[in-house]
Design goal:
The chain is an alpha+beta fold. It has a domain at about 5-15 and about 25-40 and about 50-65. The protein is built from two helices and four strands. The protein has helices spanning about 30-35, 55-65; strands at about 10-15, 25, 35-40, 50-55. A four-stranded antiparallel β-sheet has the order 1-2-3-4. Strand 3 and strand 4 form a beta hairpin.
Length: about 70
């Protein structure tokens, strides 16, 4: 298993995040270098991150947009 150094990641906030609301960030550069997309809660930057494959992340985004996880 390859160790991925997330503290050095450049995190990007979701365009659907609101000021002070539910915020999701992802680190897109890891897709090209590691084939994964780390995702975290911006309110807890030192907390855990979910790791998706590129296809898994695309499916996650599509499900969120469709309302599968509730209202955004």
């Amino acid at each position: 298993m390859t160790r991925i150094d997330l503290p050095e990641a450049r995190w990007v906030k979701s365009s659907h995040s609101t000021d002070g609301g539910n915020c999701v960030e992802f680190a897109p550069e890891f897709t090209a270098t590691h084939g994964i997309v780390p995702v975290r809660d911006s309110k807890d930057p030192h907390g855990p991150a979910l790791m998706f494959t590129a296809n898994g992340f695309a499916a996650f985004v599509a499900a969120a947009k469709s309302g599968r996880f509730g209202e955004i």
